[in-house]
Amino acid sequence: MKHIRGFIVGAVAGSMIMLAMPTVGAAVKQYVLGDAAYPIVVNGTTYEDESLPVMNYKGSTYVPLRAVGDLLGAGVEWNSTLRQVEITYGTGETSVQNNAFRNVEVSGSGGKYKVTGEARVFEAMMNYAVEDGHNYLLEKNYMLPEGAPAWSAFELSIVIPANKLPKNGTLMLQIFEYSAKDGGKVNVLHFPLETFME
Questions:
Q1: What does DSSP assign to residue 73?
Q2: pTM here?
Q3: H-type helices in the chain, by residue range?
Q4: CA separation (Å) from 184 to 77, 136, 161?
Q5: Of residues 124, 126, 63, 73, the one with CA closest to residue 98
Q6: pLDDT per residue over 168-177, tens digit each?
Q7: What is the residue extent of each domain of the chain?
């Protein structure tokens, strides 16, 4: 009789578990993400992080939120009191313009310009160039007091001779750093210096 009673209890318990499984399975959603086979590039900066890769799910791209914040110049913080992620853009300390340059301001006219801001670049070396839409008028480097990961203030004094100023067009400033991996330009930002019209 004990064996029969044990069998019945076991069968009932097994049936209850089997009946509950579809309900539990329906509550758990499965997502299959694949590595994205394409780069994410924002203002000339390519997102690269092997530990937190770009993923793809059914044609939608997924990038780690803090990385998106860095690329777009937004602050991303976890508010432990409200238990929520907070994204801020374009104000105070969070006005980062990309992962390497922030708080950039341009002033001046007539070929004389002052550019200030903060940078965090590899080995404390940032680069800048001025172009008229067709040609580079100058390209130089600037040594910062500290290299990444520290932010360092910079001030550039840019002088373009009057005979090189465009008659019709815009002088554009490009600030960037050269990649330690392949020597290419990375973290590129573009700013208009001045527009000329006859």
A1: T
A2: 0.54
A3: 2-27, 65-72
A4: 31, 17, 28
A5: 73
A6: 888 999 999 9
A7: 34-93, 100-196
